[in-house]
Amino acid sequence: MLDKISQEEKEIKKMRSEISRKQKEIENKIDEKIESITEEEAKELLLEKFFELISNQLEKYLNAEKKELIKIFESFGINTMCLLNIF
Q1: How far is 36 from 4, CA to CA, in rounded Å?
Q2: Please, which residues have CB within 8 angstroms of residue 73's CB and are 6 or more apart in sequence?
Q3: What's the pTM?
Q4: How far does Cα 56 stand from its chain's mean position?
């Protein structure tokens, strides 16, 4: 039983070491990319991220509005399945 526990502990230490090594490797790659990126590339990346953020927020807003419209139509007894095809 103790042998199994010590073997497991050795395996855990080995995994932690591997994780640490991989993390340092990733950090080095990030640092290299940061140093090599041009101002134009940085601007492009920022614009892409900004566009993604705005797009996601717009989609959330539109979905919330659709739900509200469906509630309104359902309150009047209108079949919403045909309305969903419109959206």
Answers
A1: 48
A2: 80, 83
A3: 0.51
A4: 11
Structure tokens at 85: 């095809």
Structure tokens at 47: 């614009």
Length of the chain, please?
Answer: 87
Phi-psi region of 77 (alpha: psi -120 to 50; beta: other; left: phi over 0): left
Amino acid, single-letter form, for residue 85:
N
Query: What is the pLDDT averaged over residues 51-57?
Result: 97
Q: Name, in order, each residue with C-beta under 8 angstroms of 23's C-beta and a sequence gap of 6 or more.
A: none
Segments of the chain assigned E as strands: none
For the stretch 4-49, pLDDT in tens is 889 999 999 999 999 999 999 999 999 998 888 888 998 999 999 9
Distance CA 2, CA 23 (A): 31
Q: Answer for the pair 83, 70: CB distance below 8 angstroms, yes or no.
A: yes
